[in-house]
Amino acid sequence: MPAERFVAQLNDQIANEFAAHQQYLAAAVYFDRLTMPQLAGFFYHQATVQRGHAMMMIKFLADQDAAVVVPGVEAPTTDFDSVVGPIELVLEQERRVTDQINLLTRIAREEGDFAAEAFVQWFTKQQVDAVITMSDLQTVARRSTNDPEAIEAYIWREQTPREHPQHRPGEDGSVPA
Ligand SMILES: [Fe+2]
């Protein structure tokens, strides 16, 4: 059984991950309404990534017979002044999640719970990547606030998943269909 303090904090984090899911979803819907399909698709995907994080945490607790609290979720922000707004908001959110993950690591360490610490380590790495990705996107969005197509092109070029090579014809050496 993981340490009690760790279980309590991880349950809080499950709520945070679901809140992050809702915020990414709200951003995706906003971009969808602006007919920015690249950005919308990217944010819809990021939402499912956050849900995946919550599910991993639920499984970690359930597998060890620790209590899981299925949380109520905080309402996301849905009104934005410009295309930069949702991006700034999720960058802030990812920075906050980084602090929350660091707290989980600190608790696991203080409790001498090595399994818990190993579990959290994967999220630490994820957070580094998430902050870099959103920070880069914020830079692009700020300099292209009045040129949404430039932001769309950036997502197409830099953030289209490589496991879907049909979106990047020829880049993996294959002949496009
Ligand atoms: Fe997450």
Features:
177 residues, mainly alpha, binds fe (ii) ion, ferric iron binding
Structure report:
- The protein has one domain (about 5-160): Ferritin, core subunit, four-helix bundle (Ferritin), CATH 1.20.1260.10.
- The chain is about 70% helix and about 0% strand.
- It has helices spanning about 5-35, 35-65, 85-110, 115-145, 150-160.
- It is mainly α and about 180 residues long.
* Rg measurement, Å: 18 Å
Q: Which architecture does the CATH hierarchy give at level 2?
A: Up-down Bundle
Oligomerization status of the protein chains = single chain
Small molecules bound in the structure, each named once: fe (ii) ion
CATH superfamily: Ferritin, core subunit, four-helix bundle
Order of helices and strands: HHHHH
How many DSSP-defined strands? 0
Helix content: over 70%
